[in-house]
Amino acid sequence: QVHLVESGGGLVQPGGSLRLSCAASGSISSIYTMGWYRQAPGEQRELVSSITSGGGSYYLDSVKGRFTISRDNLKNTVYLQMNSLKPEDTGVYYCNAYPRLFTWGQGTQVTVSS
Questions:
Q1: Lowest mean pLDDT among 23-32, 40-49, 81-90, 91-100
Q2: Is 61 exposed, middle or buried (0-12, 13-18, 19+ CB in 10 A)?
Q3: Are the CB atoms for 53 and 33 separated by under 8 Å?
Q4: Strand order through the sheet with 34-39
Q5: Distance (Å, whole) CA 60 – CA 89
C-alpha cells in the first residue's frame, strides 16, 4: 500500500509561517500530480494546492501569493511553504494525489490564532 505521512504543522499567530512536508512510501511524487488538501472544522475537505510531476502548480485563490508548493521526486516528498498565515488557513492539512487515489494519512494540524 501507499503510505503518506504529513508533518510540519503547528500553532502560529497571524502573519507567521510554516513549512509542511509530505513523505510518500514510494516514488509516487514522481508519477502523479500531488496535492495538499485542507479540512476546516465542520467543512468539506478542499484542494489547496497541487503540483504536477513536471512541476506545474495550482493554488486555491485564497492562498495565491502566500503559499508555495514544491516537490523533491528523488525523496518522494512534497512541501507546502505557507507564509503570511491567516486564521482562515486553520485546518487539518492532508496530502494525496490529485484526483485523490490513495488512503488518507493522519494529516497535520495547522492552527492560526491571535
A1: 23-32
A2: exposed
A3: yes
A4: 10-12, 108-112, 91-97, 34-39, 46-51, 57-59
A5: 11
